[in-house]
Amino acid sequence: MGKLVVIEGLDGAGKRTLANGLTEALHAQGRTVTSLAFPRYGVSVHADLVRDALYGNIGDLSDSVYGMAVLYALDRRGAADEIREGLERHDVVLLDRYVASSAAYSAARLHQDEHGEFVRWVRELEIDRFGLPVPDLHLLLRVPVEVAAERAARREQADDSRARDLYESDGSLQARCGAVYDGLANIGWLAPWHVVDGRSNVNFSSLLAPLFTP
Question: Largest CB tally within 10 Å, which of 20, 91, 166, 206?
Answer without folding.
Answer: 91
